[in-house]
Amino acid sequence: MKTPAILFSIFILAAAAIIGFNKKDSFLASSPKAITPVSTTEEPTGPLTEIEFLDSVLHMGKVKEGESVNVEFRFKNTGEEMLVIKNVSASCGCTIPEKPEKPIAPGEMGSIKATFDSRGRAGINQKAIMLQANTRQAVYTLIFDVEVHADELN
Hints:
The protein is an alpha+beta fold. 21% of the residues lie in helices and 40% in strands. The protein contains two helices and eight strands, in the order H-H-E-E-E-E-E-E-E-E.
């Protein structure tokens, strides 16, 4: 007698689980977050120009932990329109980038500067700075690396 009761209980639990999973799946499918793609970059608008980086990868060597490291990525406006740096952002909160506030004329040079805080970052660090400008390529990635030593450097 116990066997049919146990089988019936298992059947009821399985049915409840299947119904629960189906409701959860239909909820997720109807959720706007599940089906709406999010764009992280804007399409360039207005007059477009060209940018050429003199150094898009920098090797900053070794520093003692706690020191700040200043980096500078140089570029030239090789197009025929004013170059406007719209946004710069860093891959980590330990790096603070700066962008030029004024447009760069055709043929002129400019730079993206950043400061890296090495506190608590012992070891080899590779950081990225993303740049958006009024150029045909939507986003540029600038890279620098630095080796942070917790003890005294020789």
